[in-house]
Amino acid sequence: MEGEEPGGDEDSLPEEGEEEEEEEEEEEQVLAPCPLTEEVLKEGLSLLCKTGNGLAHAYVKLEAKYKGLTDISLLECFIHLRYVDLSENKLQDLSPLSGLTHLLWLKVDGNLLTSACMQELPYLQIISFAHNHIKDMEGITHPRLANLSLKGNKIQTALGLSHGQLFSLQILELRGNMLESTAGLNLPKLKNLYLDGVQDKGLNLKELNQICMT
User: Fold this and answer.
1) How far apart, in whole angstroms, are the C-alpha atoms of residue 168 and residue 96?
2) How many CB atoms lie within 10 A of CB 195?
3) Which range marks the domain in which residue 121 is found?
4) If exposure means fewest CB atoms within 10 Å of the residue's CB, which of 2, 81, 134, 144 is most exposed?
5) Total domain count for the chain?
């Protein structure tokens, strides 16, 4: 019986390796290309509005949730979109949205984004990046942005938000992160700052009171 024990241990090693292979296969499946198609786009378009000089019309709202999307390059041509919801997909890149200069509202919750950095959009007022894998707040520079949600990410520092570029920001949602310090937050028009559920190591209450703690 004693001679059988090492054999049992050896048998367990391939099983662990098989589990790792299965995990790798799952990751590969997550990253498998799944571009936005014209069919999915047409299904999600709504809200027909006048554009330009008022003589033309275009759909300005798009909802494409739970589609497994990894590529939204098709949106580069839809410059009249104002409201876009791409939540619960597998997006890692939002650069195709750079040309959507009329965008007012963007929701990309539950994707695979590691950065909130985007091309500056002049009229964008509301963004939700909730439940992604974002680690910092660099590259958020939209001048009319009033409501920003970064709930449920991996942010550890408040550095990166610039009051010189985010002078319209009034609501900032940071719950569910790993924030260790509020140093660097200097947003004079901020009215609501949500920090419930973050790690409170090193939080400076004086800093928070100077901004707004709710």
Assistant:
1) 25
2) 19
3) 37-211
4) 2
5) 1
**Residue 208, pLDDT score:** 44
Buried b (16+ CB within 10 A) or exposed e, 53-74: eeeeebbbbbebeebebbbbee
Is residue 99 within 8 A of residue 78, CB to CB? The reply is no
Record the tokens describing residue 197, joined without a space.
């559920």
User: Residue 10 pLDDT > 80, yes or no?
Assistant: no
Asked if 190 and 167 touch (Cβ cutoff 8 Å), the reply is no
Under 8 Å between Cβ of 72 and 97: yes
**Whether 132 contacts 111, CB under 8 Å:** yes
**Type and span of the H or E element at 62:** strand 56-63
Reply yes or no on whether the pLDDT at 162 is more than 50.
yes
Residue 172 lies in a domain: yes
Give the CA radius of gyration of the chain: 22
Residue the block writes with tokens 């296969």: 25
Q: Return d(Cα 122, Cα 103) in angstroms, integer.
A: 8
In-domain check, residue 66: yes
pLDDT in tens, 98-135: 999 999 999 999 999 999 999 999 999 999 999 999 99
Q: Report how far residue 72's alpha carbon sits from residue 111's, in angstroms, rounded to the nearest whole number.
A: 13
CATH code where residue 136 lies: 3.80.10.10
> What is the per-residue pLDDT for 197?
52
Residue 122 within a domain: yes
35-48 tens-digit pLDDT: 999 999 999 999 99
Q: Looking at the domain assignment, is residue 10 inside a domain?
A: no
Q: What is the pTM (predicted TM-score) of this model?
A: 0.79
